[in-house]
Design goal:
The complex is a heterodimer. By secondary structure, chain A is an alpha/beta fold. Chain A is built from 12 helices and 11 strands. In chain A, the strands form 2 sheets. Chain A has a 6-stranded mixed beta sheet, sandwiched between helices. In chain A, strand 1 (35-39), helix 2 and strand 2 form a beta-alpha-beta unit. In chain A, helix 2 (46-62) crosses helix 10 and helix 2 (46-62) packs antiparallel against helix 11 (278-287). Chain A starts with a helix and ends in a 12-residue tail after the last helix. By secondary structure, chain B is mainly alpha-helical. Chain B contains 20 helices and 2 strands. Chain B has helices spanning 2-15, 18-36, 42-49, 58-83, 92-103, 107-141, 145-156, 158-161, 167-180, 207-224, 250-272, 278-292, 304-328, 334-345, 352-357, 359-387, 395-414, 417-435, 441-463, 475-500; strands at residues 184-185, 192-193. Chain B has a two-stranded antiparallel ribbon with strand order 1-2. In chain B, strand 1 and strand 2 (192-193) form a beta hairpin. Classes of the chains: A alpha/beta, B mainly alpha.
C-alpha cells in the first residue's frame, strides 16, 4: 500500500511540475479536448435529463463535446467522491445536487470534504417540490390537512422520496411547528410515492415531480419554493403559510478543488449561456425546474452559508446529533 | 370492439410512413445489439436514445424508444443461451436451460425457441394493452406496499424450483442472496449496513457485476479447470450436424405453447403492477412452468419449456408496463419512466386525458407496438444467424473474449473499477458454489427480489404502526399470503414423497 502511495505521489509530483510550467498555456486555449461530465444520478431522471440538456447547449459555446458519464449511487455521493480525486484541469466536471454537499454529508460520512474538495462552478436550477393530495381528497387546503392531522394523531400517512430528502424535511418542519404526530412512509423516489397516493394507500405526498400537480391530476396544497410558481400561481408557498422553511435544493456543476480561474470563467460563461438555450429550457419545463444562473463565487457563498443553517435544522429535527462529515 | 378496430385502422394509417417504420427498425436493431452485450441493459439503450428524440415528431420518437425496449429485452437472451451470460438481468432465468441446451449442441434450437416465445408473449401483452388497458390499470393501483410485500414473498418460493438436487443447499444459496442484498444504505432510514466505511458500497452491490460474475465469470473459471478430451471438445459449443437440433419442431412448439401462454399472463400481470420488472417476471414464469410441468426434473437440464417460460415472462412485461403509463400516468418500470420523459418533452401528458384528446396517436402507437414485434422477429432471425457463429469459435479463443466482455460490461454500468472487483468476487463465489453443488440461481433470485420486498414490508409496517395484521386483512395480500403457504406445503409434501420413492430415472443423453 505504501509503495503504491509513493508511486502515486511521485506521479502527482511530475504532473504538478509539468502543469506548473505550462499552466497558463493550458488555461488560455481551454478547452482543447472533450470535457467529461459525471452525472451522479441514474439516467432518465430530472438530474440526468437537465444535465444533458444543459451540456447540449454548453458544448456549442465551448466548441468541444461534453461527454456524459453516469456515476450514480449513494444519493450522488459516489460520483462526487470520484470527482474529488480527479485532476482540476477542467476536463472532468460533475453535475450534482446541492444536497450532496449540504445535506447528505451531515447525516453520514462521505469520502470527500464537502466545502473543500470541490470548485463550485455554476448552479443552473432550483428544484421545485410540493405537497399534494388526490383530487377527491377531503383536504382542500393545507389548513384542512393540518387541522385533521392535529385532531387525529397517527392517522395521516405521508409519503416522500426518502428519509432526509428535502421533501421529507419540509413535512418534518411543518409537523414540528404544528406539533403534529403523523406517519412518514419513505419511498424510492417521488413517482412510487405518488402511485401509492393514487391507490389510496397513503394520504399525502410531499413530491419532487410536479407534472401531475401541474396538470391537475393531483391537488396541490402548497409549494415548497421560495416564491410562488408561475405554473401554479394560486398555490401558496410554505413561507407564506408561516413555516420558515423552503426547499432550497439546487442542481449545479462542480469541478475538483484548485481549478484555474480562467478555466472556471470559461465554464461558468458557457453554462450561463446554455441556460437560455432551447435544449435546457425544454427539459426544465418538463420537470418543473426553475432555471437560475448562479456563478462560481456566488454559489460557493451559498454553500458556505448553507452549511451552518442545515446543521441547525437537522439537529432541531433530531435527524442528527452532529455533522457526520467535517466540512473542510 | 368495432371502435377498437376502427381506431386501429386510423392508427395504422398514421404509422404507415417511412419515418415511423424506419424508427421501429432502427430502435429494434439498436436495442437488440445493446441488449446482447452483457452489462449494457435495455434501460441503458432507451436512456441513451432518449436525447436523440428531442427534435423528432411524437410518434417517431416513441416508436424508436419502444423498439429499443423490446429489442433490448429480447437481445439479452442471445448471450444468455450461447455464452451463459445474460445480456440483461431480464434473461437471467434463460441461462438455466439455454446454456445447457447449447452445451448439448442445441443452441440454435434454444435461440429459436426464445425468439418464438418472446415475440408471441410480446404480441399477447400488446393485445391486452390495446383491449383492456383502462380497467386493468385501476386494479394495479390496488397494489400498495402490503400487496407487493406478499407478492414478493410468494415469488421467493420459486427458489425451491431452481434449487437443484438439494433443497437445503438451494435455501442456503437463497439466504446468502437475501443477506447480500442488505449491503448498502437501508431503503427506509438510509442507515449504512455492511459497508465497512466503503462509500462505493453505499448503493449496495450492483446487480450487473453480481449477475455476470455468478453466471458468466464462474463458467469461464470452470472451463479453465477442465481438460479437453477430444478434438471436438476444443470447440466450446458443438454446432450440431443433426438438423433436428437446429430447429424447433411443431410438436416441441405445441408442447411449449401452454408455457408461453402462462408466461404471457404472468408477465402481463407483473408488468401492470408498477415497480416490479422483467427479471422477476421471468423467474416467476419459470417457477410456475416447472411446477405445472409433467417433467419438472428436466428444468435446468435443457428444457425447451424453461426457455419458453423465461422469455415469454420477460417479454410480456414490455407491453403491459405501458398500461399504467398510458392510463394513469404511472410508469410501470424504470424504462417506461424514461419513455414517459419522452412523452412529456413532446408535450403529451400520459394519463386518462391522453386517450380522450389524442386517441388517434395512441392507437398509432399501439399498431406500432405490434409492427415492432414483427420487425424484431425478422431482425432477430438475421441477427441470430450471425450470433450463432459464436458457437463455432474454439473454446480457447471464446472464453478469453467472454472474460473481457464480463469486465467491460461490469465496468460500463457505473464506470466503476470497484464493480470489477465485485465481478471477480462473485465469479469466485459462483465457481466454488457450483463445485460444491450449490445452485447459483436461488442466490440471484433472492438478491433481485429482496430489496423490493424489504422496502414493501417496512413501508407496510410503518403504515400499520407496526402491526403485521396489515398483510392479512387486505384481500389481495391475504390471497398471496395463502398462495405462499399452499406452495410451501406442496413443496414440503413432494419433497417427502420423493424421499420415499425411487427417483424417476433420468433420460439417457
Amino acid at each position: 500500500m505504501t509503495n503504491h502511495l509513493k508511486k502515486f505521489g511521485f506521479f502527482t509530483l511530475i504532473v504538478c511540475v509539468v502543469m506548473g510550467f505550462s499552466g497558463t498555456g493550458i488555461a488560455a486555449d481551454y478547452p482543447k479536448k472533450p470535457v467529461t461530465m459525471y452525472v451522479v444520478f441514474s439516467p432518465g431522471g430530472s438530474m440526468d435529463s437537465s444535465a444533458r440538456g444543459l451540456s447540449a447547449g454548453a458544448e456549442q459555446i465551448l466548441g468541444q463535446p461534453i461527454v456524459i458519464v453516469t456515476k450514480d449511487g449513494g444519493g450522488g455521493t459516489v460520483g462526487l467522491g470520484v470527482l474529488a480525486n480527479d485532476a482540476p484541469d477542467g476536463y472532468t466536471i460533475a453535475a450534482a445536487t446541492s444536497t450532496g454537499i449540504l445535506r447528505i454529508p451531515l447525516r453520514r460520512k462521505v469520502p470527500y470534504k464537502p466545502l473543500a474538495s470541490f470548485t463550485p462552478l455554476f448552479a443552473y436550477a432550483a428544484v421545485a417540490s410540493a405537497t399534494v393530495v388526490n383530487p377527491d381528497s377531503p383536504f382542500k387546503t393545507m389548513q384542512d390537512l393540518i387541522e385533521f392531522a392535529k385532531a387525529n394523531p397517527g392517522k395521516i400517512k405521508y409519503g416522500t422520496a426518502g428519509a432526509g430528502s428535502p421533501m421529507h424535511l419540509v413535512m418534518a418542519v411543518i409537523g414540528m411547528k404544528e406539533n403534529i404526530n403523523w406517519i412518514h412512509v419513505p419511498f424510492k423516489g417521488s413517482a412510487p410515492a405518488e402511485t401509492a397516493l393514487m391507490g389510496g394507500h397513503i394520504d399525502v405526498v410531499s413530491t419532487g415531480d410536479l407534472d401531475k400537480a401541474i396538470t391537475g391530476q393531483l391537488r396541490t396544497l402548497c409549494v415548497h419554493t421560495k416564491e410562488r410558481m408561475g405554473i401554479l400561481p394560486d398555490v401558496p408557498t410554505t413561507l407564506e403559510l408561516g413555516y420558515n422553511y423552503y426547499n432550497d435544493t439546487l442542481f449545479a456543476i462542480y469541478g475538483p478543488a484548485g481549478m484555474d480561474p480562467q478555466v472556471v470563467k470559461a465554464l461558468e460563461d458557457a453554462f450561463e449561456k446554455a441556460v437560455d438555450m432551447p435544449p435546457y429550457q425544454k427539459v426544465a419545463k418538463q420537470f418543473g425546474l426553475v432555471p437560475i444562473k448562479m456563478k462560481s463565487a456566488e454559489y460557493r457563498k451559498f454553500l458556505e452559508d448553507g452549511w451552518p443553517q442545515q446543521v441547525e435544522i437537522l439537529t432541531k429535527l433530531k435527524l442528527i446529533e452532529q455533522p457526520a462529515t467535517e466540512p473542510r | 370492439m368495432t371502435s377498437i378496430v376502427g381506431n386501429l385502422l386510423i392508427g395504422l394509417n398514421i404509422i404507415w410512413t417511412w419515418e415511423h417504420l424506419l424508427a421501429i427498425v432502427v430502435g429494434s436493431t439498436l436495442g437488440l445489439v445493446v441488449g446482447t452485450i452483457p452489462g449494457l441493459t435495455a434501460t441503458m439503450a432507451v436512456a441513451l436514445i432518449l436525447p436523440l428524440t428531442f427534435d423528432m415528431d411524437f410518434v417517431t420518437s416513441i416508436m424508436l424508444l419502444v423498439g429499443a425496449y423490446k429489442g433490448g429485452i429480447f437481445g439479452g437472451s442471445i448471450t444468455a443461451i450461447l455464452l451463459n451470460t445474460p445480456g440483461t438481468p431480464a434473461s437471467a432465468a434463460t441461462v438455466l436451460d439455454g446454456y445447457t441446451l447449447t452445451k448439448q449442441g442445441k443452441g440454435i434450437k434454444a435461440l429459436k425457441m426464445a425468439k418464438y416465445s418472446s415475440c408471441l408473449a410480446d404480441f399477447g401483452s400488446d393485445l391486452v394493452l390495446i383491449a383492456v388497458a383502462a380497467p386493468l390499470a385501476s386494479v394495479a393501483l390496488k397494489f400498495g406496499p402490503p400487496e407487493i410485500a406478499m407478492l414478493i414473498m410468494f415469488s421467493l418460493t420459486i427458489i425451491a424450483g431452481v434449487a437443484g438436487k438439494s433443497i437445503l443447499k438451494g435455501l442456503i444459496s437463497g439466504a446468502l442472496g437475501l443477506l447480500l442484498a442488505t449491503v448498502g444504505l437501508d431503503p427506509i432510514m438510509t442507515t449504512r449496513r455492511f459497508v465497512f466505511d466503503q462509500a462505493d458500497l453505499d448503493s449496495g452491490l450492483s446487480l450487473i457485476p453480481v449477475l455476470i460474475g455468478l453466471f458468466a465469470l464462474s463458467e469461464v473459471f470452470l472451463q479453465l479447470g477442465r481438460k479437453s478430451k477430444s478434438k471436438a471438445d476444443h470447440f466450446a459449443i458443438v454446432h450440431s450436424k443433426d438438423p433436428a437440433d437446429n430447429r424447433v419442431s411443431w410438436r416441441e412448439f405445441k408442447r411449449s405453447l401452454r408455457t408461453i401462454l402462462r408466461g404471457t399472463a404472468i408477465g402481463t400481470g407483473i408488468g401492470i403492477i408498477p415497480g416490479i420488472g422483467t427479471g422477476i417476471a421471468s423467474f416467476m414464469s419459470y417457477g410456475q412452468a416447472k411446477r405445472a410441468s409433467k417433467y419438472p426434473e428436466k428444468f435446468g437440464r435443457g428444457a425447451l419449456e424453461g426457455i419458453a417460460a423465461s422469455e415469454s415472462g420477460n417479454s410480456a412485461v414490455v407491453g403491459a408496463t405501458f398500461i399504467p403509463l398510458l392510463t394513469l400516468g404511472i410508469p410501470g418500470d424504470i424504462i417506461t419512466a424514461v419513455i414517459m420523459g419522452a412523452f412529456l418533452i413532446q408535450g403529451f401528458i400520459p394519463g386518462p386525458l391522453l386517450f380522450k384528446d389524442h386517441a388517434d396517436l395512441i392507437y398509432a402507437i399501439f399498431v406500432g407496438f405490434i409492427i415492432c414485434d414483427i420487425v424484431y422477429f425478422l431482425i432477430g432471425s438475421v441477427f441470430m444467424k450471425y450470433a450463432a457463429y459464436l458457437s463455432r469459435v474454439p473454446r480457447r479463443l471464446l472464453f478469453p473474449i467472454v472474460f473481457v466482455f464480463c469486465i467491460v460490461g461490469s465496468y460500463a454500468i457505473h464506470h466503476s473499477v470497484f464493480d470489477i472487483g465485485i465481478l471477480v468476487a462473485f465469479g469466485i463465489i459462483g465457481f466454488y458454489m457450483q463445485k460444491f453443488g450449490f445452485a447459483t440461481a436461488p442466490l440471484l433470485i433472492a438478491f433481485i427480489l429482496s430489496p423490493i420486498g424489504e422496502t414493501a414490508v417496512r413501508q407496510s409496517l410503518l403504515m400499520s404502526s407496526g402491526s403485521p395484521l396489515i398483510f392479512v386483512n387486505r384481500p389481495i395480500s391475504l390471497g398471496f399470503f395463502l398462495l405462499t403457504l399452499i406452495t410451501i406445503a406442496g413443496i414440503v409434501r413432494s419433497h417427502f414423497r420423493e424421499k420415499h420413492q425411487p427417483l424417476i430415472k433420468e433420460e439417457t443423453k
